[in-house]
Amino acid sequence: MRLAFCLAIATLMAACSASPAQPAPQPAKPPQAHAAPAPTLDLRCRTDADCTVKNVGNCCGAAPACVNVDSPTDPAAVMAQCQASGRMSVCGSPQITGCQCVEGQCSAKQASADTLRRPMESTEPVR
Structurally, how many domains does the chain consist of? Predict the structure, then answer.
């Protein structure tokens, strides 16, 4: 009887033992969209008149930047490249008040801190 009991326990234990572990299936990679490359921005200038603010785009959406007036831009192509590669971007952009040519490159004129607040009406010191 003991032998039958031991055989029954051994059979049950063998039946309950886990089969060899198989690696978990890997999720399928999404198909890579073939996005058209975004145009190379032209930042060259000789005078301030060579520069203008254009929407160059980023992974968040609109992104104003100072570029050459004849520079090609394609915000939709930039967004498509971001989506195809799974990249993201920080949203928000600086306030550009104008463009200037600095050492042969178009550069943004940033809004100064003083333009963002009203002038003080009183000359009394704050206490």
Answer: 1
